[in-house]
Design the sequence.
């Protein structure tokens, strides 16, 4: 474990101890996939409190860790706020990417950990942020790229409608992680093996380096720098014994 990872563990332990000693919830900022893997690898060290990971919607990549007193069945409230960012330029709206929205937010001086996933749509985006930053964003985020924008609170229910998937089907010789990645990336198995070896693949937030791991139906698989997909299972098999599988890639 390197120094940065140890610093994270120390911070997590401090939050868990605060929760336990004061009997109040404690929350991290949004953790990236690497940080989530570090937390999950030390999960047994937090058995004195309840822990919940939350990204604001099912399938979120960036998540916070919530430390709750043992008597709490669920979070008393969510420290995450959904914000809708909408262009007010009408037909003159310039298309924006995830990078454009994120850059506009970070240029306000907001730390990356205060911002969760950003779901980009046509002329708008939905952004997850720590509730403590919401009012600041509503007041100060006035433009993205060359577009004037208007920000407002959204509902968590709105987020599901912003998710767009592309269904992919194909056959694999065996249900191995390197085979699924090759199908998703439309590359060879040697290329997918290289991605696994470079520690860029995460299954449900946990780092995966195993070429032969067999994913379960419903697993969310993220490839850092490329994208992520949901494994929807095996549909059938061919006469030659190959497996027909389905995945849904996040657009």
Sequence:
């Amino acid at each position: 474990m390197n120094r940065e990872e140890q610093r994270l563990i120390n911070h997590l332990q401090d939050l868990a101890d605060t929760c336990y000693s004061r009997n109040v919830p404690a929350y991290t900022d949004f953790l990236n996939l690497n940080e989530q893997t570090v937390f999950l690898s030390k999960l047994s060290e937090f058995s004195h409190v309840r822990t919940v990971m939350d990204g604001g919607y099912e399938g979120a990549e960036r998540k916070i860790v919530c430390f709750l007193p043992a008597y709490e069945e669920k979070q008393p409230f969510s420290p995450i706020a959904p914000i809708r960012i909408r262009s007010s330029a009408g037909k003159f709206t310039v298309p924006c990417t995830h990078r454009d929205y994120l850059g506009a937010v970070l240029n306000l001086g907001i730390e990356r950990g205060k911002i969760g996933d950003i779901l980009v749509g046509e002329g708008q985006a939905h952004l997850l942020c720590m509730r403590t930053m919401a009012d600041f964003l509503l007041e100060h985020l006035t433009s993205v790229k060359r577009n004037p924008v208007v920000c407002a609170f959204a509902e968590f229910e709105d987020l599901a409608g912003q998710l767009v998937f592309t269904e992919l089907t194909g056959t694999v010789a065996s249900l191995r992680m390197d085979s699924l990645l090759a199908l998703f990336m439309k590359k060879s198995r040697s290329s997918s093996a290289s991605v696994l070896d470079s520690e860029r693949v995460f299954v449900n937030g946990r780092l995966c380096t195993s070429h032969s791991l067999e994913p379960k139906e419903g697993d969310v698989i993220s490839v850092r720098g490329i994208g992520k997909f949901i494994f929807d299972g095996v549909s059938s098999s061919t006469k030659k014994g190959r497996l027909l599988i389905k995945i849904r890639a996040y657009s």
Notes: The chain has a mean pLDDT of 93. The helical segments are 3-22, 33-41, 98-106, 131-140, 156-160, 177-185, 189-197.
